[in-house]
Amino acid sequence: MSGQDIALLLHLLLFAYWLGGDIGVFYSSGFAINPKLSRGARQAAGTIMMNLDLIPRLCLSLMLTVGGILTHYYGIEHPLWQMIGIILLGPIWTCALIYIHFNEGTDLVKKMTKIDYYFRWIMVFTLIASVTYAFIFTDRLAENPWVGAKLIVFAALIFCGIMIRKYIGGFITGIHNIVTDNINEADDIAMAASLSKARIFVLTIWFLLFVEVWIGVVKPGS
Questions:
Q1: How confident is the model at residue 200 (pLDDT cuts 50, 70, 90)?
Q2: Could you report the per-residue pLDDT of 48-103, keeping only the tens digit for each?
Q3: 4 with 70: CB under 8 angstroms?
Q4: Is 62 exposed, middle or buried (0-12, 13-18, 19+ CB in 10 A)?
Q5: CB-CB contact of 21 with 55 (8 Å)
Q6: Using DSSP, how many helices (H) and how many strands (E) does the chain show?
Q7: Torsion sign across C-alpha atoms 155, 96, 48, 190
Q8: Does the predicted TM-score (pTM) go above 0.90?
Q9: How many Å apart are CA 187 and CA 30, to the nearest integer?
Q10: What is the largest CA-CA distance in the chain?
């Protein structure tokens, strides 16, 4: 296999595991919020959901690195500093998310979580600004405008994740209380309301992932 084949394979696998993991998390959430189920069943669903949720987040963190390397094979040149940043972004972000997941509750993780939140906003604006600059002031994407479209959609994916984080607090608190056997009726109500607010952004992510794959296969404008 060539380097391009490997990059393309990883790119497709990241989409597959991202969507599959996200659907698994969403499906498990229905069992976790169901007060008619036994406490043990809800604890099991909550634990599965919390652990499974790591997979989509890791896929997101690696996507720009793999995608950036793949664009190199499509003839889009990157300055050395930019390529170094592309290569380092995925592994560093992934390691940070893994550390946050397995060390939740510590002071360091609370700071890292806040940094990750602002970093995602920076990524949204950076992607939009860089694509806009490339189209208006350069011809880097002239032969492959679909790459710019994919980056804009990816910015939208990150934004949806930020919105989910904004509304999912009540649900996450309830999940932790289920796992620690400290759930009550108020938590059940808060979990259902929180999940209801976040649901539209979850469904939007699924749709945007389909759009990303379609753009990558059809390559409109090339």
A1: very high
A2: 888 999 999 999 999 999 999 999 999 898 999 999 999 999 999 999 999 999 99
A3: yes
A4: buried
A5: yes
A6: 8, 0
A7: negative
A8: yes
A9: 14
A10: 60
